Amino acid sequence: MSENPILVTGATGKSGSRVAARLRAAGLPVRAASRGGEHTFDWADGRTWDSALEGVRAAYLVQVDGTRFVRPFVERAVRHGVRRLVLASGRGIDDPDYANDPGGVRDALLDSEAAVRESGLEWTISRPGWFAQNFSEGFFAEAVAAGELRLPGGDGAVSFVDAEDIAAVVVAALTEAGHSGQIYELSGPEALTLAEAVAAISTAAGREIRYVPLSVEDFVAEQVAQGIPAPEAAGFADVLEPLRNGTDAHVSDGVQRALGREPRTFAEFARSTAAAGGWSV
Q: Source organism's superkingdom (predicted)?
């Protein structure tokens, strides 16, 4: 059993890369799978699935938003003898009013969760909120590095969760007993507005970074002026709706339940990122 690898899909992403690194640090065999990583894997290409699953004992599934590949993949995993699944899902999917969702992301996530629960395997579901790392290696990183974040985020608060905490929970669920059948909703220990989050980054980085709140209309217009297609700009504004509305402000207890400790604060994330050279000019 110890020689069978643990499959990590999305292994070049924010959570998958950290999960793979933590597993390797613990001396465990890892199959790091992605379209451009160590082991070629593509959710949209079923021909890559069997080689990813061969001999695997446990798998971390990081799905593509709005797609329904998880259910057939889980069926394939069962046939390959996989014993344990950890699914990356998202906060808010049990709330139909959480956000405008023209792309059907919520329904696809719900189907994925149902597929994992119905698989007959040991399963755990991770439901993280907004990643703190969106400011350092995601949606907001380039603007923050340039010194000004212009978003239609209003003054709603968000309980940003550190991807290191997400990875720690996932690794525990992949490798330890006691997590089967659990849904861990993950957040940081406090809710911050975008202005407060950017202020924390400014303090850690030692230079001024500004948050400029925009209306949805102004944001879309600015994006279009920069060459972004209008539907894509409007879709990104929809993604930010939970920030504007404060529907992601609540604090969840998943990190505490899974790990027996408090989650990292946003200030801790900002300090460690700055110390590692993040947001340097």
A: Bacteria
